């Protein structure tokens, strides 16, 4: 049977089943209906409280399920900044564009804007600003490329002038623009040699799908030009062209001259993997589909508990600012939490974001060695963050925030629904205790956990990164990264593991006929400008030191003891994690104490993570030296935000966090920034084919002697009567 007619039959079958259900409705008890406990009436909540279209009123008439209240579309044309950290508005980006066009170095139209973002006001200005008062002068920070040079400009939007103009003398180039990427993949098509190779590989030019692969930096011979390597696939028979690489074909392209410099073709005997079974779209699936679970959603008949004003979020005990950013994806700023004892808002985090990613592949062959991406500084985690899919990327009642970015010529564009904010109730427990029968006290006290999540998802080519910032009412902040999307695939002649000789280096796992999932790592380095009750903080490594007892009064021979080491300089805080040298990592404010005298603090709690195994002098690791330690602490410096350096594309590693940290500056009782790297080793497995189920890892920022006691003890439990229940009105 043809798939389409098959589907039609299935549809008819389902429709008749539905009719049957309706005609015998009196015997069928739908879930959660008819129970004596139901106290809410549907009419109270109107159309909200229905269970798909299956609920009927007493009269037998359908209660039409209408859509829940939709968030109003933001009107970017009339938008004005309300907070000193609000991103540039559409009007402000337009103003930058017109100022650039009037400036002599750029007015021949021969410039490309690689980044147009808010030049954040000084920290003091932001912190002293009061809601309702005038904003500090709005300025834009612009990275422009003109005449073979990178310029860093500060544009004063009030004066309408460029007030700072710095030519870069650093190694490395700005992140690619979308235009760089889309034009680079067109370049090989002009080459006769390339077209011939593609034809020889039996790929129809109309099926060709090519991707821009940042070429990294591997020493002399690759300098002075903005280079990119273009790799191609066949999309014949599948939307998942990543599974059909034209293996070994690499085209080195000069991004500015838009010229092919070199073509490598060393995969001639490697067949094109099959298309069958690789398409992951719903429309391409074989029927019948896996039966769905019963419909599920978190209902909030009174709406969510957060309030969002522009980019300011208020929820539970938290207040913070969220800003989409082309490079970092999103930035969380001035996160403050309410102290339940005093009612005062207390600062925890001045600024937090994903500063850089490092994704090295473990294949050293000609077609693969350069695949060592620094995704934030080369591609932009925000530029590659696409619109989220309501109900699937984020649940009902999520609030969506748009990103506003600029094209290479400075024209603003809207990335709609780029960030979502929602409350998560996943059946977790905030705290609990039951008394066991020994005491006969019959105590059972439990509080449910509801959290607030701020989410975005970047699709950097094949890979998808889901970044969550999750806030808890007890003061904990969890940063989580989920990996999904499609593997980078290497074509191979092998179709079965039995064919592979033990001496053959596969560099990955055979996932299907002719397909190798190449081993690789992901490192995500977070910038965490902690401000525990103020700017000046110290970093304390609290070591669980093993102690032995010789001839003690009891038979015990060993124990551990917490030993505190306050980091004096940066090198004291270059930390490699180890299970057998356990430690906690506290950020304290030495001049603020709890009621009983502990310095107030937060601790950084690493989760599952990974460390790079590349040699420190391997070129990719030099450029990504910020992953040499899992934790670093630097003194706050406005120019040190990007762990891989300001200009990461083809960088040589002379402007990384590792270089800054080796200056060994004092960090005790100073405004400090903590850097944490979340890592994954990824040895692909068959379940990752043809698209990967999400794997994730996280770390926490947890209050540690910050509050005087459990800050959520006085919260109330859930009662059935307070909860929405979907029920028929009858
Ligand atoms: C190549 O693509 C063209 C245009 O879609 C189509 O007409 C032609 O039949 C294709 N050739 C092969 C060999 O698939
Ligand atoms: C701030 O950072 C920049 C860039 O790394 C550096 O040149 C400058 O010396 C730093 N300033 C201080 C005080 O460390």
Automatic annotation (TrEMBL):
Cofactor: record remark: Contains 1 topaquinone per subunit.
An annotated GO BP: amine metabolic process
2',4',5'-topaquinone: residues bearing it: 463
Pfam families: Cu_amine_oxid, Cu_amine_oxidN2, Cu_amine_oxidN3
Start and end residues of each Copper amine oxidase N2-terminal domain: 83-166
Copper amine oxidase catalytic domain: residues covered: 297-712
Active-site residues per Swiss-Prot or TrEMBL entry: 375 (proton acceptor), 463 (schiff-base intermediate with substrate)
Name the record gives this protein: Amine oxidase
Species for this entry: Picea sitchensis (Sitka spruce)
